[in-house]
Write a structure and sequence with these properties.
Number of domains: 1
Shape: globular
Helix content: 25-40%
CATH superfamily: Spore Coat Polysaccharide Biosynthesis Protein SpsA, Chain A
CATH architecture: Alpha-Beta Complex
Strand content: 15-25%
Largest sheet: 8 strands, mixed
Number of strands: 10
Radius of gyration: 16 Å
CATH class: Alpha Beta
Number of helices: 7
Length: 207
């Protein structure tokens, strides 16, 4: 059984001011680095959903462009990209995965985090697992990425922003949270340029 990943990279990146997939990250771009991290994990099937600036993303990915799925409806919301990625994984030529990693391009992660989440889902055959972390007051919060059982793939392919997308799926299948205590990698969200320096330090990326 395979482990698949849907890497969502279709948005306009308005708050960032420049395309998030193409942000400088180490010796290349953020999306190149994220692809490499997925390849270093237990993931063995990847769909990269693109929309805005797709041709630019295609060029930087090189041979990895074969994983790209274009979502023409990307301006209508993130749920359309999730649905497009799930539909691609449902193609008859693909094996239905045992688990699906949902990763947003603005939420980089590590292979060790992905592997731990996939293993936790597998051990107890859970519908959904999600990392959790503690804030400074000791409160628990859900982090990213989220890993879902492959049996939810058809449900994912039908999500819409009108019905609250992935959030609605998680309400129907409440995630089992896996503690990561205070690891910032599970809560980093690259919305604006001021967040980039700290994020690069967390992942050991040179400025």
């Amino acid at each position: 059984m395979t482990v698949a990943a849907i890497l969502l990279a279709a948005g306009a990146s308005r708050r960032m001011g420049s395309p998030k997939p193409l942000l400088a990250w180490g010796d290349g771009t953020l999306i190149e680095w994220e692809y490499a991290q997925l390849m270093a994990s237990v993931v063995d099937d990847i769909v990269i959903v693109c929309g805005a600036r797709m041709e630019h993303v295609r060029r930087v990915l090189g041979m990895a462009e074969r994983h790209i799925v274009f979502n023409a409806r990307w301006p209508q919301g993130r749920a359309t990209s999730l649905a497009a990625g799930a539909a691609a994984l449902l193609h008859p030529d693909r094996e239905v995965p045992e688990a699906i990693v949902i990763q947003n391009v603005d939420q980089p992660t590590r292979p060790s985090i992905i592997d731990r989440l996939v293993e936790a889902r597998r051990e107890r055959d859970l519908d959904v697992v999600q990392p959790s972390y503690l804030d400074d007051a000791g409160g628990e919060h859900g982090g990213h990425p989220v890993v879902l059982a492959g049996r939810l793939l058809t449900e994912l392919s039908r999500v819409t922003d009108a019905t609250y997308g992935l959030r609605a799926v998680l309400e129907r299948h409440p995630p089992t949270r896996i503690p990561f205590e205070r690891d910032p990698a599970v809560w980093i969200d690259l919305d604006t340029p001021d967040l980039l320096p700290d994020a690069r330090r967390v992942f050991g990326i040179k400025e």
